[in-house]
Amino acid sequence: MLTNQSDNTPIDGSALSRISMEAESDSDSDNQPGYYRRLLNDVFRAIRSEKGHRQELLRMIRGRVPLRQIRLYLDQALPETQEIKTEEEPSKKVKVGDVPENDTPQPRPQAMDIQYLCDNAPCKVPAKPWTNVTDDDELVSHLVSLYMTWDYPFYAFFDRTTFLENMEKGNLNSDFCSPFLVNALLANACDYSQYAEVYTIAGDTNTKGAAFLAEAESYMRTHSFERGGGTRLATLQATLLLYERYSVLGNEDFGYTMLHRAIEMAEELGIVNSEKLSLSSSQLSEEMIRSIQRTAWGIFQIDTIVHTNFLKPSRIREVSVHRLPREENGREDWSPYPLSSHPQPSYMNQYFDEACNLSYIARDISRSVQIAEEKKISLNEVKQNVYDRLCQWDADLPEMFDPKGQPAPHILLLRMRYHALMINLCCDNFGNYSSFATMEKRVPMNLDPGKGTTALEVALSSARQISLIIQMMRAQYGMRYVHQFAMYAINVAIYTLLEQPDFDIVDPDFLQLTGAFATISNRSQVGKSLYHFLKLSVRSRDSSHQIETLEVIPTELKEIFPQGHQDGGAKLRSGRTSNSQQDLEDSPKPVPSPGLKDMIGEYEKLSVGKEERPFDHRESGNFSF
């Protein structure tokens, strides 16, 4: 009987032997010499490791998961040591094996087996007549499955079941599916495939993503005449998808442009910012009523997330249709495709309802100044009330939303959103520092008078909670597929830690968050720019800090620290100025101060652009904590 070296628990040798038996009968597998020998060796390597792969591997083997899916899992769990060139330093050699995490993007192979990937795709849909980019049903099924697995649950602004049913039928006259909507969705899905399995398909994945986006944009011009009651729901949904895409690409001001256009369409349809609509008394089908509800409440969530994130008043004051029923006893399964086919409860109805509840609180956070003026009370009183509501929301969450229970990633993201809101609420006027550049200290406010808890303490606690949730997410799913909102939450947590007066650059939570950000930032140009901004901020904040134990810093993070740290800290310990510090001092470009508000401003500029607010909205400066 084999045992695991880390805990001496038995390993089912008969289950492992199935690899050899299936190798002989699997005619579709890779027949290169030594393929199965390497596979078996890697299985043993993963089992012997201390990273918790044993149980998942045995579950896959016992469940007769195809060998190539096991191969994929091993490729992610055990990155091979090989030399690759980074984009920033073409001549510098980096050993992938030096990176301790299993979610670091790997070098792309030159080809892929699309048949293998799509055999198990949960969403089987046709390419035609929806897109002119490809006629490959398997590729489209794979991309749609990726989007529905990782991106869709966070906002869920269209009805998944109705959309897939109508896409499968191929009916171009459908009210629930259109080429505009499909191509916008596929363009978003390519963001996930770039660092997953779709490496090269008749060219580069980026080319495919750009082609889907270009076709979606051509339909956007075609549908631009839709106004008022003639606006199609699918057009509104596609516009929201373009907002998501542009906010990742950082295309000038297109992020805000698409979001505002979608809100205007929702207003024209009367589903937000208008008198209540009674959909039940209309002649609409159940599918249409459900789709309208999804879209109305989905866009409300997006609006409150975006504007509260960037410290601006939300545009949607109220949703004009009833919310979807919560259905406490309803259960849907979610599987982390393509990582595993093992299902777990999604609790999607409960999640969506709780997200809507949190969105109301976010709306009032973003309008704190306006609410204080209307009610003629102090701003601090408004924010104290909002803080109490946030705490109550958290206390009322169902038990299955506890991160310790390893829920689906959209539930983990919801918890991260809650903590990001806490940090936003505690910013500046509540006792935090506006920035280390000015060191202007304000009178602290006790958010919890009974405990004497200051806003700074609340913000730091939330930052560390985000770090803990990120650790759980990395352990369960890695960071390759996580929704882009995680990048915002990680950033506010990093800068909250960075901004505290007694900041320690080897703080385990800071290193954990920075490591996760280093991975997720590679998925987009916006992320890469923000990572560069972070490097400058850290070097500016830590220009005189001395690190005695560099061993605690992961290899892949050392690049963000001053050059003296990378050289073993000898120069800093001897009192001499590091090269990187001198470079920063001599640089003609201003070094960003390591402030939370500075980062938020940079994030907004890079992702969604500059917001024009022509009607009944205050300037962003008025939403200042």
Automatic annotation (TrEMBL):
Stretches with biased composition (Basic and acidic residues): 82-98
Transmembrane helix in keyword set: no
Keywords, sorted A to Z: Nucleus
Xylanolytic transcriptional activator regulatory domain mapped to chain residues: 146-337
Keyword Transport: no
Family matches, as InterPro entries: Notoamide_regulator (IPR053187), XnlR_reg_dom (IPR007219)
One Pfam family named in its UniProt record: Fungal_trans
Protein's UniProt name: Xylanolytic transcriptional activator regulatory domain-containing protein
Organism: Penicillium olsonii
